[in-house]
Specification:
alpha+beta, Glutaredoxin, 3 helices, 4 strands
Length: 103
């Protein structure tokens, strides 16, 4: 059996993809795809290699989009932008949530 190391944090960012793979919705229109790339780049730059990033289909919180979730903490964030990602990762490194973006 191969030992698999689980990530310390699993970060999900809504990209509004539908089952067909077609991007639609609020998060897609707010450039969530680029935010996923930015998030991964920031994690790499910070040496946060213990984080796994996944883009998701619609999370049904369009009024708050783009939406990002961090597990195992269970933090749900809304209206994500590059500055928000920076603040969220700063807080995550300090072991706390970024209170202003929580939904």
């Amino acid at each position: 059996m191969i030992a698999v190391e689980k990530p310390k944090h699993h970060i999900f960012l809504c990209s509004s993809s539908r089952m067909s793979g077609e991007p639609k919705g609020v998060c897609h229109r707010k450039d969530a795809r680029d935010l996923v790339l930015y998030l991964q780049s920031e994690l790499d730059d910070r040496g946060m290699t213990d984080c796994l990033v996944s883009n998701t289909g619609c999370l049904k919180l369009c009024d708050h989009g783009p939406v990002m979730i961090i597990y195992p903490e269970g933090y749900w964030y809304g209206n994500i932008c590059e500055d928000g990602i920076d603040r969220i990762l700063d807080a995550l490194q300090e072991g706390k949530p970024e209170e202003t973006l929580l939904i």
